[in-house]
Amino acid sequence: MNITIHSAFLPHIDRDATLAFYRDLLGFEVRKEVGYNDMYWITVGHPDQPGTSLVLHPPAADPGITDDERRTITEMMAKGTYAILTLATPDLDGTFEKLAAGGAEIVQEPIEQPYGIRDFAVRDPAGNLLRINEVR
Questions:
Q1: CA–CA separation, 73 and 14 (whole Å)
Q2: What is the average pLDDT value for the chain, to the nearest integer?
Q3: Helix H segments across 10-135?
Q4: Which residues does 10 contact at the CB level (< 8 Å), separation at least 6?
Q5: In the chain, what is the greatest distance between 2 CA atoms, to the nearest angstrom?
Q6: What angle do CA 126, 132, 136 make, to 5 degrees?
Q7: Could you give the C-alpha distances from 104 to 15, 30, 72, 126, in angstroms and in order?
Q8: Each residue of 4-25: b (16+ CB within 10 Å) or e?
Q9: What is the pLDDT of residue 61?
Q10: Which conformational region is residue 60 in: left (phi greater than 0), alpha (psi within -120 to 50 degrees), or beta?
């Protein structure tokens, strides 16, 4: 069996802030953008990984979600507990410095974790938690 990750989904709430973070700070390319009313689905990915994409979507846009579920999703996003993504880089300190200088919300500075990974944590503009691991 040959299976790869094609895309993953994270919610976003502000098109401009999302592009500034993922495109401008992280260096991802915008592969597709679809707008409907005031909602945007933005597909981004690293230029060196054309087969793997991240789809940034409006939260709770599914018509099958109830108003109570929408409220819960909004509350969880505000706390940073709704969605998590782990990225990796060989230059953890340089990546940290670039994100910090760019105004990203730093949750945890680079640290050697007891389970053997050196990483840091940051939140994107929608509150999603991103852990960035150092590739050794």
A1: 16
A2: 94
A3: 15-19, 67-79, 92-101
A4: 54, 55, 56, 57, 83, 85, 124, 126, 128
A5: 47
A6: 170
A7: 16, 19, 25, 11
A8: eeeeeebbbbebeebbbbbeeb
A9: 80
A10: left
Residue 4 reports pLDDT greater than 90: no
This prediction has a pTM of 0.91
Q: What is the dihedral of CA 128, 37, 19, 82, to 10 degrees?
A: 0
Band of the pLDDT at 29, cuts 50, 70, 90? very high
Main-chain dihedrals φ then ψ at residue 66, nearest 5 degrees: -80, 165
Residue 88, H or E segment:
strand 84-89
- What totals of helices (H) and strands (E) does the chain contain, helices first? 3, 8
Residue labelled with tokens 């939260």: 59
**Neighbour count for residue 98 (Cβ, 10 Å):** 14
φ, ψ of residue 43 to 5 degrees: the values are -100, 125
Task: Please report which residue ranges of 48-105 form alpha helices under DSSP H.
Answer: 67-79, 92-101
Residues 6+ positions from 11 with CB-CB distance below 8 Å: 56, 57, 58, 59, 60, 73, 77, 82, 83, 126, 128
